[in-house]
Amino acid sequence: MTAGQTEVRTGFARLMADRLLAFFGLLVTLLALIALGALIYDVLRDGVGRLSWQFLSSYPSRRAEEAGILAALAGSMFVIGVTAIIAIPLGVAAAIYLEEYGARGRVSRLIEINISNLAGVPSIIYGLLGLGLFVRIMGMGRSVLAGSCTLALLALPVIILATREALRAVPGTLREASYALGATKWQTVWHQVLPAALPGVLTGLILALSRSIGETAPLITIGALTYVPFAPKDIWSPFTVLPIQIFNWVSRPQAAFAENAAAGIVVLLALLLAMNAVAIVLRDKFQRAR
């Protein structure tokens, strides 16, 4: 066999391997989409008929036909809003410091490793931390603020990692051009680097807040209530959220409460998609402005 024939056979084998890998990747993706579509169809079939203004504007009740989701919906929006206010500035500031100001020494590498590890810690661990730190030591009680601080801890590693990657992707020539024009390091970061990295930063925020709004274990651990017949008035109010309310309805034996749970899942999905849509629109807007 000549060298040319060997090269042809090797190239053909690589081409077949690439096509086979692409086929299996497409097959796995289709199977995942089919499973997701089946789950969404099942939830919509059970829950759409229960959706109404009365369901959205009523408080929980022991009677399934009178039960509503207002307290949980208001609690979710309140908690995720306070979580964003706490986590976004802290996460972005920490990422800017570590990427732009932090020295490349042992301490910096140790911090990076710990942040990467924290991103994979189970959410129940954050709940235990929130219970010990915010609820008991800091005396916040079972309040919106305690829940938001706990979810902020959960979101911080994702925000920090995504923001650092976005800052790292900004070309160094942009920084050098800014310095050449006489800008200080902070002016360069604030006016040049951060705006250029903003689409990537927003992607991290989408992932972090999307994870936070669907979490149940940390909030149950800190003592969030399963039955709340009122909407939270301030950050010190007791609260419940949509995942906990859905969990409460699913645990009931009556079939009508299962329909309420399906309708609650639809509302949660709609809220999540609305949040993601706003973030994606903002990200695309900043990408076009670059």
Keyphrases for this structure?
11 helices, MetI-like fold, 290 residues, mainly alpha, globular, 77% helix, 2 domains
SSE layout and pairings?
Elements: H1 3-47, H2 53-57, H3 70-101, H4 106-118, H5 123-137, H6 144-168, H7 172-180, H8 185-213, H9 217-222, H10 242-250, H11 255-289
Helix pairs in contact: 1-11, 3-6, 3-8, 3-10, 5-6, 6-8, 7-8, 8-11, 10-11
> What percentage of amino acids are in beta strands?
under 5%
Total tally of structural domains: 2
Largest sheet: none
CATH hierarchy, class of the largest domain: Mainly Alpha
As for the CATH topology of the largest domain, it is MetI-like fold
Q: Report the helical percentage.
A: over 70%
**Gross CATH architecture of the largest domain:** Orthogonal Bundle
Number of strands: 0
Q: What would you give as the CATH superfamily of the largest domain?
A: MetI-like
Shape: globular
Please provide a written account of the structure:
The protein is mostly helical and 290 residues long. The chain has two domains: 3-50; 71-237, Orthogonal Bundle (MetI-like fold). Helix content is 77%, strand content 0%. It is built from eleven helices and no strands. It has helices at residues 3-47, 53-57, 70-101, 106-118, 123-137, 144-168, 172-180, 185-213, 217-222, 242-250, 255-289. Helix 5 (123-137) crosses helix 6 and helix 8 (185-213) packs antiparallel against helix 11 (255-289). The chain is globular, with a radius of gyration of 24 Å.
